[in-house]
Amino acid sequence: MNYQAQGYYPQFQQTSPGSPGTSVLAGIGALGIAAGMGGASAYFLAEVPTARDIFALPAGLQSLLIGRMVLAALALIGAILLFTRRRAGVPLVALTAVASVASLPLEPLISELLRGIGITVSGYFEALLEFNDTYTILLAVGAATGLIAFLFAILPATSRWLRTPRY
User: Which parts pass through the membrane (predicted)?
Assistant: First the structure.
């Protein structure tokens, strides 16, 4: 059967190549995660007198600080992967973004230090939202940029941009 006689020609939809802007914004958000979460952990270790030796801290606080440092390193790697147009950067940035936001409500549940000084979970969040010291500001920066990084990392335009051939 002749397809030209019937007037049928298969139509292929061409998709747009994606936007480099979404990939760059996701990468900048990942850099914000690295700066916020890594900076908050480094600030805590530098400013709290009893935290000079991380292994002398309670186990929950150790895991929180080390976890945030690892999170910052993974976010930095994800940002580099996005800036070099590697597709592995998208899930890495998305996972670190979710973990950075999830680390805030987990802190009062994990850390024994808060129980030792008598702060409740509601008191922790009140102190966190006052933004009266560098630690809380860095945590807020890490969480806010985590939301931004997640939003731009999961957009289809970011994946399309990373899949387009490089010339």
Answer: 21-45, 65-83, 90-106, 135-157
| Residues 19, 7: Cα–Cα separation, whole Å | 35
Say which residues have a Cβ less than 8 Å from residue 38's Cβ, sequence separation at least 6.
68, 69, 71, 72, 73, 76
- Cα dist from 103 to 9, 32, 79, 100, 128, whole Å: 54, 15, 20, 5, 13
Tokens encoding 113: 């230090």
Please, what's the largest Cα pairwise distance for the chain?
Answer: 85
Please state the pTM of the whole predicted model: 0.82
Q: Could you report the per-residue pLDDT of 137-153, keeping only the tens digit for each?
A: 999 999 999 999 999 99
**73, 99 in Cβ contact below 8 A?**
no
> Can you give the pLDDT at residue 7?
57
Q: Among 76, 65, 13, 23, which residue's Cα sits nearest to residue 42?
A: 65
